[in-house]
Design brief:
globular; 5 strands; 6 helices; alpha+beta; about 170 residues; about 40% helix; five-stranded antiparallel β-sheet; Beta-Lactamase; single chain
Length: about 170
């Protein structure tokens, strides 16, 4: 069972030039995390290894974003996006994440590899209102329809801008 962490308003920042790296198995359980992951999350290696990567999922993140992430990587493609994560102490930090499928020498999927870096302040200023709209749609919908409602908001924004999801995140 996932331990409940009460979010706070304390923001932490990934230092310039630092990169968070983690690996998961095909079910999203953490199999590796570098030192900066441990430092920025406040968790020990023992607390993270074998746990679902969503241990650091912040409640301000729309479920629709993670649905898109999993849909993308399960299709064998890389995902890029802005993510607000939760620290063990309830604080939070933002990252720009790249998640890719990992394969063994026989071409079989063995897990996922994620590299995260510090996002620009301008990008966060642009993505936060989008996430707020997606969250509002999720909260207004039934549990069963929440992800669809969230994804529909995102799709509407992309259509209005006339861009794909990747074009959108890379231009922020």
């Amino acid at each position: 069972m996932k331990q409940r962490i009460a979010p706070t308003d304390k923001e932490w920042f990934l230092p310039e030039g630092e990169t968070i790296i983690s690996k998961t198995d095909t079910k999203g359980r953490i199999t590796y995390g570098n030192g900066i992951l441990l430092e920025i999350t406040g968790f020990s290696e023992a607390e993270l290894l074998g746990k679902q990567h969503n241990i650091v999922r912040h409640p301000d993140m729309p479920r629709g974003v993670f649905h898109l992430l999993w849909e993308t990587v399960k299709a064998g493609e890389e995902f890029n996006g802005y993510v607000k994560n939760l620290r063990k102490d309830g604080g939070f930090y933002w990252v720009f994440a790249n998640v890719t499928p990992s394969y063994n020498g026989r071409g079989e999927l063995v897990g996922y590899y994620s590299v995260r870096r510090k996002p620009s302040a301008a990008a966060l200023k642009s993505i936060q209102p989008v996430y707020q709209q997606m969250l509002a749609a999720e909260r207004a919908a039934t549990t069963k329809e929440a992800i669809s409602a969230s994804r529909n908001v995102l799709q509407g924004i992309l259509e209005t801008k006339g861009v794909s999801y990747d074009e959108f995140v890379f231009t922020l």
